[in-house]
């Protein structure tokens, strides 16, 4: 898959989450940098391995997005540490290609002693390093000048491993790593390391889907919307005999077409009343938001497909008001697919529309030449089948997502009970 380089997938994931709240990702970058320096000092790690561990370290608090109050990092990082650790673990285990390393996230707040008692050997060294790096950044951020890394020494062999504390000391002698956290230097060094990321095509596809699943952190509707939309796109692409390569660029364009929604307040996305003009303008801004993070990362053809999903062939769309002659077939397919998705899926103020109502609205819009005539003709030729298949696939994606949430609730309960014993 040459649609995106491995490093750009990392940047895209990080920046998509930053749209929602940049704080956990900035903290993640600092922790990843400290981990990088510790792994480098320890030795024995290939560059690509360090890069992958640092990608995980950047995302180590991903589980905080859906369930924690992000304005209170001290609460979820030092007191109620379990929920976001569990959620992040399940999210990566079931919705990413990092299933085998997801436990690092589950254990990032577990003490060295507890981990050793449990006999957890897999990735124990990285987990112990990450756990120390995490504490260094959290306490350094909250204590400022009063922070002294030596204050962790008394916890050697209990909260932290001796090895992790020794390696951090050594890394700090080699270079001023804590000072670098205060400038952009750590970001630059981390960025260079990330040049070594090397994902297989299958991993890349899976990671792009992970980005799509992040939409659920903002609104429960958006993952299902995207899945339904992708299904309509692929069925239309088949009917219009698009070649394999074009079908693939359309798939990736459709996959990320609404990721900018992560930057829109939940109250607006899920509003059950009519939006004011101002709110509507804000909502429309999701296209500009995703433009900033997609451009120069994802393949330009897929990027344009995504960025033009609200354009209409008669020039009535946004953000550019383009007309049919300025757009290509896959762009026009996504426009129709996205519009239909908005009609058939439930909205906070109404249930999904029945097929007949969808047909009526589309016919009315087509009287004003909103869509490409070939695309809409193909759609009407298999109307019922396309809708049925799209709804089935949408529900499937919802089930996958919901299974992470229900597993989370079960696991959290189990672990809370275990802690009480
Ligand atoms: Fe955490
Ligand atoms: Fe953290
Ligand atoms: Fe959109």
Blueprint (SSEs and pairs):
Layout lengths: L5 H15 L2 H20 L4 H12 L5 H4 L5 H7 L2 H14 L7 H4 L5 H7 L5 H20 L18 H13 L2 H4 L4 H10 L6 H13 L7 H19 L4 H12 L10 H4 L7 H8 L1 H9 L5 H8 L21 H16 L10 H13 L5 H9 L1 H38 L1
The protein binds fe (ii) ion (FE2) (3 copies).
The site of one fe (ii) ion has 5 residues, from loops.
Description of the structure:
- Helix 1 (6-20) packs parallel to helix 13, helix 14 (221-239) runs antiparallel to helix 15 (244-255) and helix 15 packs across helix 19 (300-307).
- The protein has 421 residues and is mainly α.
- The chain has 23 helices and no strands.
- The model has no long low-confidence stretch (mean pLDDT 95).
- It has two domains: 6-200; 218-404, Orthogonal Bundle (Hypothetical protein af1432), CATH 1.10.3210.
- The chain has helices spanning 6-20, 23-42, 47-58, 64-67, 73-79, 82-95, 103-106, 112-118, 124-143, 162-174, 177-180, 185-194, 201-213, 221-239, 244-255, 266-269, 277-284, 286-294, 300-307, 329-344, 355-367, 373-381, 383-420.
- The protein starts with 5 loop residues before the first helix and ends with a helix.
- The longest helix is centred in the last third of the chain and has 38 residues, at 383-420.
- The radius of gyration is 23 Å and the shape is elongated.
- One fe (ii) ion is lined by residues 61, 77, 84, 108-109.
């Amino acid at each position: 898959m040459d649609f995106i380089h491995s490093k750009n997938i990392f940047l895209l994931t990080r920046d998509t989450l930053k749209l929602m709240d940049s704080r956990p990702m900035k903290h993640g970058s600092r922790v990843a940098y400290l981990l990088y320096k510790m792994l480098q000092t320890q030795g024995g790690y290939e560059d690509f391995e360090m890069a992958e561990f640092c990608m995980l370290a950047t995302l180590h608090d991903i589980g905080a997005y859906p369930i924690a109050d992000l304005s209170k990092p001290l609460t979820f990082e030092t007191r109620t540490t379990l929920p976001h650790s569990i959620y992040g673990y399940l999210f990566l285990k079931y919705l990413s290609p990092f299933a085998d390393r997801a436990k690092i996230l589950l254990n990032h707040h577990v003490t060295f002693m507890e981990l050793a008692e449990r006999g957890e050997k897999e990735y124990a060294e990285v987990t112990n390093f990450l756990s120390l790096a995490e504490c260094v950044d959290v306490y350094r951020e909250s204590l400022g000048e009063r922070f002294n890394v030596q204050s962790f020494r008394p916890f050697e062999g209990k909260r932290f491993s001796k090895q992790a504390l020794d390696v951090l000391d050594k890394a700090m002698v080699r270079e001023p790593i804590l000072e670098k956290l205060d400038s952009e230097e750590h970001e630059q060094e981390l960025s260079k390391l990330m040049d070594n990321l090397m994902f297989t095509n299958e991993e890349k596809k899976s990671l792009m889907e992970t980005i799509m699943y992040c939409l659920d952190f903002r609104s429960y509707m958006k993952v299902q919307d995207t899945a339904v939309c992708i299904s309509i796109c692929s069925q239309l692409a088949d009917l219009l005999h698009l070649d394999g390569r074009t079908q693939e660029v359309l798939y990736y364009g459709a996959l990320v077409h609404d990721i900018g929604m992560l930057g829109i307040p939940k109250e607006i996305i899920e509003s059950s009343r009519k939006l004011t003009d101002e709110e509507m303008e804000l909502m429309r801004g999701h296209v500009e938001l995703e433009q900033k993070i997609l451009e120069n990362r994802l393949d330009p053809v897929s990027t344009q497909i995504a960025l033009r999903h609200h354009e209409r062939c008669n020039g009535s769309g946004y953000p550019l008001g383009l007309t049919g002659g300025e757009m290509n077939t896959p762009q026009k397919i996504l426009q129709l697919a996205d519009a239909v998705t908005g009609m058939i899926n439930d909205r906070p103020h109404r249930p999904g529309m029945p097929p007949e109502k969808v047909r009526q609205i589309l016919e009315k819009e087509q009287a004003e030449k909103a869509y490409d005539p070939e695309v809409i003709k193909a759609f009407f030729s298999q109307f019922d089948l396309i809708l049925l298949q799209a709804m089935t696939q949408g529900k499937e994606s919802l089930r996958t997502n919901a299974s992470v949430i229900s597993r989370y609730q079960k696991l959290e309960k189990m672990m809370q009970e275990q802690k009480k014993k």
